[in-house]
Specification:
The chain is mostly beta strands. Helices cover 0% and strands 59% of the residues. The protein contains no helices and 16 strands. The model has no long low-confidence stretch (mean pLDDT 88).
């Protein structure tokens, strides 16, 4: 999430990071800002950074017989930052042999040509250029014919 303000010349600005100096003269980074309205309802108006979670945290794929093996779907959820978000899935281990089927989506499945264990990484970038990564292990197995 980002906070938009206008400067003295009425130019819109986006706040990406907020810091304050405490009573001990130490600079601290603000993680969240909440505002309470007239009805006494609190709303978060600023959250520093982008945080990710994958569900499920591990992808499994199995196949009986010949052919490529497709895993379960995995969805990455996002907290913080500012929408819209971009996703970029990549195979980081091993260097080849498997792919993300929807490499620019929050939800994807993975496909491998044969049995292997792999790690995929989703790099998420928000509209302000803040990014975070999450790694999702995947296992591809084949059952006997």
């Amino acid at each position: 999430m980002a906070v938009s303000i206008r400067d003295v010349s009425n130019t819109p600005r986006v706040i990406g990071d907020i810091r304050v100096r405490d009573t001990g003269n130490v600079v601290r980074t603000i993680e969240q800002i909440w505002i309470r309205d007239e009805a006494n309802v609190s709303r978060k108006v600023y959250q520093r950074g982008v945080r990710l979670a994958a569900s499920p945290a591990f992808a499994n794929g199995s196949r009986y017989g010949a052919g490529p093996i497709t895993s379960d779907t995995v969805t990455v959820s996002i907290a913080g930052g500012a929408a819209p978000y971009s996703h970029s899935w990549a195979l980081i281990s091993p260097s080849a042999g498997a792919v993300a089927l929807n490499p620019t989506s929050a939800t994807t499945a993975f496909r491998a040509g044969g049995e292997l264990d792999a790690i995929f990484r989703d790099t998420v970038t928000d509209t302000n250029g803040l990014s975070a990564t999450i790694d999702v292990p995947a296992s591809f197995t084949r059952t006997d014919l």
